[in-house]
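Contributing new records

If you add data, match the layout below exactly. Sequence lines come first and carry their own label; structure lines follow with theirs. Keep one chain per record. Anything else will be rejected by the validation script.
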Amino acid sequence: MSSKKFIQCAVIGAGSWGTTLANLLSTKGLPTRLWVYEEDLCRRMQENRVNDLYLPDFELNRNLFLTSSLADAVSGAQMVLFVCPSQAMRSVLLSLRQYLPDDCFLVSAAKGIENDSLNLMSEIFAEIVPEKLYRRMVFLSGPSFAREVAEKIPTAVVAAGAQLKFAAEAQQIFSTDYFRVYTHDDIVGVELGGAIKNVIALAAGVSDGLGFGHNTRAALITRGLAEMTRMGIALGGSASTFAGLSGMGDLVLTCTGDLSRNRTVGIELGRGRKLKEILSTMQMVAEGVKTTLSAYQLAQRLDIDAPIIQQMHAILYADKDPRQAVTDLMSRELKSEVVS
């Protein structure tokens, strides 16, 4: 399978990232169908060729097919890309699995850890989709703000698959002259990096909201990487993965970029606003909020030292004062720097 061939693509999820990737595929000349959960949004997108809710100001390719029917979206699809919020992935998959073509190729671009089960997205797919489809799965991650990709700003990401030949297929399908895809075989490491970086970005935002400087942010990024790496190794991932695009790359982007929804939530928390109030004004999902709960519980299960995740959990779920959280982080027992 190569992107040069006639490949019918389906994209499940029309948030900013799903819409951007669907448009990218359609613009490459690949017949692409985008599933839009909200029927009223789907109608507006069909009429105006703009996703006014999640990606305003970007005209959609005229050949991109829009539908609110899961069955129609995946009918005849050779590649199905999932870009739903991580906490909705299970329900979407359960609704969709009866319609998946037997020979399609699955890609997930969702980033998160499911609440309650503490499963990565790969583990959810393993439970729900047929084994022969799961064996061919690829997981797409890396530092990639949707708006910048929509603007065709040069971006590099990684496609991870247990079998590198399928990661290479995804590489060919998605790569353009502004969107470069690397391959990897460490699914756990790539997925965990994409999930935990959102939690650390919340903490970086809190730091910015409190008025702290670059020193503090650099410390949070570096020590956040240490927590991410420890957890990844405990789950079977490779330490080297976290030095790459899906680890350090995505972490730096999300902790420093003004387009980061998670950093934005953190900034407002640092300024004294309450979480419920902040989220009520946001149209798009800040994955890190729910992932913090899962990451905290997963660190406990694995007996992993994760002080930043612990303090972020206390701020979000125990209404801890952010300044006190910083004080508690800084006054911990003095240690040697150990990255893994």
